[in-house]
Amino acid sequence: DCSLWRSAHKNRINMAFKGEDHLDSLPLPVQRMHLIQVDSVQRWMEDLKLMTDCECMCILQSKPISIEKDEQNEFILSSQHSTCDNLQLLLKRAWIISTELTRIAQKLEKNRWQRVHSMTVRVNCHVRSMINEYNTFTRNSSEEMHQFEKLLIDKCSEFTAFTERCMQTEDEQILKSMKSCINETLTTIAQYFGRLIELVLTHEAQNLLRQIELSDSVYVTESAISSLFSLTQEGAHLCRIIAKEGGVVVLFKICRQDCFRCLYPQTLRTLASICCVEEGMHQLEKVDGILCLADILTDNTHSEATHAEAAAVIAQITSPHLTFTQHLSSFLENMEEIVTALVKLCQEASSGEVFLLASAALANITFFDTMACEILLQLNAMKILLAACSDKHIVDTPYSRDQVVTILANMSVLDQCASEIIQGNGVQLLMEMLFERSSSGNSAEVAACERVQQKSAVTLARLSRDPEVADAAVKLSCIPRLIKLCRSPTERNNSDSVLVACLAALRRLAVMSPDGLEDSDFQQLVKPRLVDSFLLCTNMEESFV
């Protein structure tokens, strides 16, 4: 599925900020700020750059040192970072403000007025600094943005005054009456702040898309697309903003111009990110994006990197986890061409990453439409995938094996599939997949290993209706391995889905070869109802094995 190839493909992982208490009203762009996982000391050093002495900031009101007007533009240009760096700075500042607002709400509930006031002063400073920093590198802010900037600054000043008065009184009744006003003010600040951030991000998305659309320079276009991609990594809400502003249309225009061929991989990578939201998918359909992707995949003059990124877009838009793929009617019209190109990409892949993207797209397509399995069978895809699994440089991770076994599981519903499995030594591969274990202990990799075990058991269960496959599985000692997975929770990483699949496969093989089981295994794992065997195995202690 899409989450697998995406996490393996340059670690495209987004984390979400979760608001609490009075910050439930914070809009999505604030709630989904991108958190960077780094060493705590390094993180502290980075955040320190954004911290400001509160007393000095209150005195200066965050105003820059005055310089001559004629020199100002030159000063700004000379000190300006790239658009991408400025946006990242803005988002980090916004994340800090969001965190501070959450902490204020928590301290307010505990009536820690001194802490509330000091944190309020700090938020006031951060808000002014953020607005000042943004106005330093943007030149054409809208009137609505200026309006919300003023509303936010005024409300922050009012909030600081409120909390200062609370510090000067010890009367519980007065504090209780003022608390409701402070709560209301805090909620308003959160709303103004969230709206301002959304306006800023929309404004920046518009600027970048305008730059991409109007520029003839490869360098300028590349820089703008890079900045746009960085925005897509900040969460689904930003992808929605970009899609609503016409991002998919603009990027597909790039993919239809030969002069920008060197930018196709980067452009397609950005499209894959935007198409994780429904708005992006609707735009893709409107601009005949499927046809464009099919043309790219079937054009042998394109680089492998371009083909791989086109496969990544296909994997994204056909993800079985998305609920809004039904409108992709044009996909069915081009499916045979796309599937053929993806099988060829799997066969000729020069790296594990390319194979992962192509196989992930194929795996998702087999969920998307059953006709895809018949096309794959005609293209000898089974033979190609099984051969790829023997090359440890190509199928080099549990994520890749997960895609392969997903395709095998979905194809195994076809009767003709059994002979292909036998010819390609597929039963041996499925047996090996039952032993899949994570070498790193990483949670994502462990989950991928569980899926490999589960789907290989499902595939064995489906294929074992063919006596020849069942006989091969018995000879390869699949039954003892399935019993081990059922009885030993650690072998299956305590996964219930693996247990159910193994019980189903074991029961199918037991019908074909009843002599392969001991009486205790038959009585506990085969004879009872499936749910009873499941409950028995889930309650087993490790010492029982």
Automatic annotation (TrEMBL):
<feature type="domain" description="Protein inscuteable homologue C-terminal">
    <location>
        <begin position="93"/>
        <end position="545"/>
    </location>
</feature>
<dbReference type="Pfam" id="PF19427">
    <property type="entry name" value="Insc_C"/>
</dbReference>
<dbReference type="GO" id="GO:0045179">
    <property type="term" value="C:apical cortex"/>
</dbReference>
<dbReference type="InterPro" id="IPR000225">
    <property type="entry name" value="Armadillo"/>
</dbReference>
<dbReference type="InterPro" id="IPR031938">
    <property type="entry name" value="INSC_LBD"/>
</dbReference>
<dbReference type="InterPro" id="IPR039921">
    <property type="entry name" value="Inscuteable"/>
</dbReference>
<dbReference type="InterPro" id="IPR011989">
    <property type="entry name" value="ARM-like"/>
</dbReference>
<dbReference type="GO" id="GO:0045176">
    <property type="term" value="P:apical protein localization"/>
</dbReference>
<dbReference type="InterPro" id="IPR045789">
    <property type="entry name" value="Insc_C"/>
</dbReference>
<dbReference type="GO" id="GO:0008356">
    <property type="term" value="P:asymmetric cell division"/>
</dbReference>
<dbReference type="Pfam" id="PF16748">
    <property type="entry name" value="INSC_LBD"/>
</dbReference>
<feature type="domain" description="Protein inscuteable homologue LGN-binding">
    <location>
        <begin position="36"/>
        <end position="81"/>
    </location>
</feature>
<dbReference type="InterPro" id="IPR038205">
    <property type="entry name" value="INSC_LBD_sf"/>
</dbReference>
<dbReference type="GO" id="GO:0008093">
    <property type="term" value="F:cytoskeletal anchor activity"/>
</dbReference>
<protein>
    <submittedName>
        <fullName>INSC protein</fullName>
    </submittedName>
</protein>
<dbReference type="GO" id="GO:0009786">
    <property type="term" value="P:regulation of asymmetric cell division"/>
</dbReference>
<dbReference type="GO" id="GO:0000132">
    <property type="term" value="P:establishment of mitotic spindle orientation"/>
</dbReference>
<dbReference type="InterPro" id="IPR016024">
    <property type="entry name" value="ARM-type_fold"/>
</dbReference>
